[in-house]
Amino acid sequence: MATFGLIDYDAASPEVRAIYDDIMATRHTDWINNFWKALAHDPVHLQRTWDSLKAVMAPGALDPLTKELIYVAVSVTNGCAYCIASHTVAARQAGMSAAMFAELMAVVGMANTTNRLAHGYQVAIDDRFRTPAPAVGNHGEPPVAAGGRKAAQTRAAASVKRATASGAAPPAAGQATRRRRR
Amino acid sequence: MATFGLIDYDAASPEVRAIYDDIMATRHTDWINNFWKALAHDPVHLQRTWDSLKAVMAPGALDPLTKELIYVAVSVTNGCAYCIASHTVAARQAGMSAAMFAELMAVVGMANTTNRLAHGYQVAIDDRFRTPAPAVGNHGEPPVAAGGRKAAQTRAAASVKRATASGAAPPAAGQATRRRRR
Amino acid sequence: MATFGLIDYDAASPEVRAIYDDIMATRHTDWINNFWKALAHDPVHLQRTWDSLKAVMAPGALDPLTKELIYVAVSVTNGCAYCIASHTVAARQAGMSAAMFAELMAVVGMANTTNRLAHGYQVAIDDRFRTPAPAVGNHGEPPVAAGGRKAAQTRAAASVKRATASGAAPPAAGQATRRRRR
Amino acid sequence: MATFGLIDYDAASPEVRAIYDDIMATRHTDWINNFWKALAHDPVHLQRTWDSLKAVMAPGALDPLTKELIYVAVSVTNGCAYCIASHTVAARQAGMSAAMFAELMAVVGMANTTNRLAHGYQVAIDDRFRTPAPAVGNHGEPPVAAGGRKAAQTRAAASVKRATASGAAPPAAGQATRRRRR
Amino acid sequence: MATFGLIDYDAASPEVRAIYDDIMATRHTDWINNFWKALAHDPVHLQRTWDSLKAVMAPGALDPLTKELIYVAVSVTNGCAYCIASHTVAARQAGMSAAMFAELMAVVGMANTTNRLAHGYQVAIDDRFRTPAPAVGNHGEPPVAAGGRKAAQTRAAASVKRATASGAAPPAAGQATRRRRR
Amino acid sequence: MATFGLIDYDAASPEVRAIYDDIMATRHTDWINNFWKALAHDPVHLQRTWDSLKAVMAPGALDPLTKELIYVAVSVTNGCAYCIASHTVAARQAGMSAAMFAELMAVVGMANTTNRLAHGYQVAIDDRFRTPAPAVGNHGEPPVAAGGRKAAQTRAAASVKRATASGAAPPAAGQATRRRRR
């Protein structure tokens, strides 16, 4: 069911069929899910939405699996049943294991709790968290403005730093300089 | 500022100091951010929250960077200024580059749009998205119940499948068997 | 289904029937939808809710169609399936065309994205956006406090200025005075 | 303040300056607000976001004022301080009077209440609200797919039906045929 | 600061002063907080909002402290800084202790987590949770429709059952009849 | 239905059965609802979630009924159908009457409205609401840090102050000292 009904491939206009074809080709599949069939009543919006989604979800500095995990995290937080169902399948196709899903849910649940605790306790933001990040990021890679999209740093390279990080709030920039506890 | 004020290390009780010490040791840092100082009025809740966070954010089937990206995605969706500030710093410490942040924001923005479009167009969930996933996941790894936490599959292994996935709704299980378009 | 069941007209108390009658008379219809039947277990709350809704949705400075579009926008953002279904029908009865619905969805989707980008990029509010608006509005109409409800300015009059506005962030007050770009 | 700082016009790359110029030209203004300066670190995302916003907010079946009112309604529901501030100014520039703003807030407040009441009372959706709308809308205008964007129906034409509509849930399609109350 | 500025008592119209006086009298205080001063530009909306709030928060089947705790819980979940600040003070005036606040935050945090887990794991609602509650409630008190407001059952009476309840999902109606585990 | 299916008692591993047994024993019931069966694929997360929920919902400074009312308020605000269904039953088991439920819904609806009005009118927080609360609370009870959990103050004691409080924004600390209206 959908507000203005669903437009199947056979009933679609040539311009809509062209979009459907691109969706199926991009996803290496042979069917169109209801989301697109519902939007098809407005080919202009359908085209804009698909073009943006295709560009946003394409491999870049973040791989498709990571992007799908983020998509599920947002959909779960918003309580969107349709998107949770579709992107959970998408994430699994992208390589999400049962163990990864379980951890994803644990992180999403944890974040939804601490988000409210921070609000509820009216916690002021620490000055150390207000420092703007250098435009070039913190790995010396070229700024995104300079075509960072193409120069995708490898996850491996990034992994070097990762080992040292865990827990909710991180050591802030300049933490290296020892300081008396207060 | 915080509802019941902030409890600094020097003013903290021995049990609270022990938690502060564990937080700093776990994060390889020498300071405690306001979030914990605000919760410290209730050591029991402080302990439970920190223990859960420490366990949830520890490396497992998902690496710390991926977990921080998910944490930021949820915090941004909920509009929690404190958590956005603290976890953006945490994500950068875990290896998030400027390019990764830009793509994270793009995915979060996209998901927040399609979540609403799916609601607004009252799109029914496709039957193919309703199929429950096999308990063992889709990589043949042992179920989480059987200690999957320890047997963390490598990202590399997962990456093999990733290349084929992109776009919002994925090919559903069993897509391999060709089917006439409808 | 509803938490305490639904109270149909025939089973309703005289006071509830009186409210049902007013709802049907106000809407020029001959049935009561489930929302009111579910609230009917508490006639006091039912009366207060209906009175407020009737007053809020009545034609005023904004016409019924515009109010229904706003109602749908909020319901979609909150993901309330019931309200999306009922108010989409209400909006269509008020004159919403398929083209208007498509644009409504596009704006709602866009706003949900930029809301998150503004949060995620931790964008500070521009000083120009902080200037309080003059109590009399910016069209010299009498303040609401002075019975503005009655003196509803025509959409036509308002339309004069509209043509010049588009895009997300508008020229701020005093934009007329040219200024060097910075 | 912003996560990666703000990029002013003078410090912007040629491609970013071109986008800034288009934003100012489209809005008939001479300044760029912080939102765009924060996104400028990722010209690709900046371009995509601006292009979508420009297209979505352009006059169509809905006028700019109505679109800004919807934008404010969504931003208020999401609690996005930045977007509330910027789009309230945008709405006023588009013709929103103090009376319109007051009614906008009343509708947004009302919708946020009934959204929760519908959830809380676990109200099932009435069958009459499930009927999909005809693809051609309910005014006999050509479907959006057939270039409805261009053939923007006049508000005046739509207004004819509006006078009869008010209240939350509307008479459903086919209400004309009288029916015994049940 | 507020969109149309704040209207102080001395600058208020007679009708607005009358509302201010009722607010201060009802609250046994001598000042008006910004929320009301911001709404005062629309006396009609101000009156409706205050009348509803006054009626809703008055002692009834739930005492003022319980109502304030609920108000804070909702405000924290929505991330409304203003309402969190004002209602936390209101709750404390109504008798909320530091221990009660800590437990309130813990429950709010927990609910925000399980809400997402239920969404994320796509958990179907158990049939036992779908049974509508008897209109007369489960204490044999007269239905609200029959003036239950006046016949407010005492907390003491309600407390009898409370001792046996704890944990998230309760034994469903008819649990008494033993059943084989499945 | 659930993402990875539901694990019934008979099919559960010994460690999962032990958790199921504790859930049933704690709740004095003989069945396990779907929520836990869906989480059971990850015994570690299941254990952590149940342990936290059990501790958070146990009687303390707030009684089980009050905690369930708060749980429903959050679930309704988040629009979580599963949690609304399960915790409404839980609240009724804990003693919630039809009248209490009606008032709960009224407060939740009211809070969701004023939360948006405060955002929409961009109301600045009054200085009086910013004063941090004394760590020992406002009843002279020992701070939570000093084992307040055990020394649960009686509701009766708290009730003394309650009678004087109602309405949204409370008299602020120090209101006693009379002040000229401004």
Total of DSSP H or I helical runs spanning 4+ residues of chain A: 7
Tell me the Rg of chain A in angstroms. 21 Å
Order of helices and strands of chain A: HHHHHHH
Regarding quaternary structure, how should these chains be classified? Answer: homohexamer
| Most extensive interface, chain pair and sizes | A-B, 129 and 130 residues
Which spans of chain A of ≥5 residues are poorly predicted at pLDDT below 50? Answer: 135-182
- Give the total of beta strands of chain A: 0
Q: Write down the overall geometry of chain A.
A: elongated
Distance between the termini of chain A: 59 Å
DSSP strand content of chain A = under 5%
Q: Biggest sheet of chain A, open or closed, and with what strands and sense?
A: none
Average pLDDT of chain A = 80
Proportion of helical residues of chain A: 40-55%
Tell me the structural class of chain A: mainly alpha
Task: Characterize the structure shown.
With 182 residues, chain A is mostly helical. Chain A has 7 helices and no strands. In chain A, α1 runs parallel beside α3. The longest helix of chain A is centred in the middle third of the chain and has 23 residues, at 98-120. Chain A starts with 13 loop residues before the first helix and ends in a 20-residue tail after the last helix. The model of chain A is unreliable at 135-182 (pLDDT under 50).
